[in-house]
Amino acid sequence: MSHRHIFEWEGKEHEFDDKPAEWYWALGVVSVASIIASILFGNYLLAVVLLTAAFAIGLQAAKEPGVHQFKLSEDGLMIDHRLYKFSIMHSFSMFEHIDPKQAPILSIKTNSILAPHFLIPLEGINADAMYAFLFAYIDEGEHEETLIDRAVDFLRL
Q1: Domain count across the chain
Q2: Alpha carbons 73 and 140: distance in angstroms, whole number
Q3: Rounded Cα distance, 104 and 92, in Å
Q4: What per-residue confidence (pLDDT) applies to 15?
Q5: C-alpha 94: how far from its chain's center?
Q6: Cα 61 to chain center, whole Å?
Q7: What is the 3-state secondary structure (H, E, C) of the chain?
């Protein structure tokens, strides 16, 4: 087992966007209206699901993102203390932003049910060198933003 890390960096889970009070008020108004409508239509289970979802979205929106340690070696990708071997990785892609101030993002699709897609910020990393390294171990694939990614961007979570 190789212990030499080719690339090592830190990155946040996501960019934190401090929400104004109006954002939380809008979440509350839309949630309460939806819950009342579902109760009026007799769909009590949907009301419980909406209440739980609104609570979870509110908590996620207020939470500061965690900082993770990433290490890429010949064994695979280590995120904090968990190693993801190249054998479970299906493909990778690099997303680069129009704004040069934003770091590129490494997208990796895996065969794992619990972690099928990683989006990893490449702060302070030579993206071209990492591309060349990964290309030797994983196929490059065409990755697009998922519906969940778009919803998270839209809700500014």
Answers
A1: 1
A2: 18
A3: 13
A4: 74
A5: 14
A6: 14
A7: CCCCEEEEEEEECCCCCCCCHHHHHHHHHHHHHHHHHHHHCCCHHHHHHHHHHHHHHHHHHHCCCCEEEEEEECCEEEECCEEEEHHHEEEEEEECCCCCCCCCEEEEEECCCCCCEEEEECCCCCHHHHHHHHHCCCEECCCCCCHHHHHHHHHCC
Residue 48: inside a domain: no
Question: Tokens standing for 138?
Answer: 């994983």
Q: Are strands 105-110 and 89-95 parallel, antiparallel or unpaired?
A: antiparallel
Unique residue bearing structure tokens 């579902």: 38
Residue 134, domain extent = 75-155
Contact of 118 with 95, CB cutoff 8 Å: no
At residue 37, what is the residue type? A
C-beta separation of 1 from 17 below 8 A: no
| Residue 138 belongs to some domain of the structure | yes
Least confident of 39-43, 61-65, 99-103, 118-122: 99-103
pLDDT digits (tens, 9 = 90+) for 43-86: 999 999 999 999 999 998 888 878 889 998 888 899 888 889 98
- Is 119 a member of any domain? yes
Two tokens at 123? 């702060």
Separation of alpha carbons 9 and 123, rounded Å: 7
Question: Distance of CA 21 to CAs 36, 71, 149, Å?
Answer: 22, 38, 24
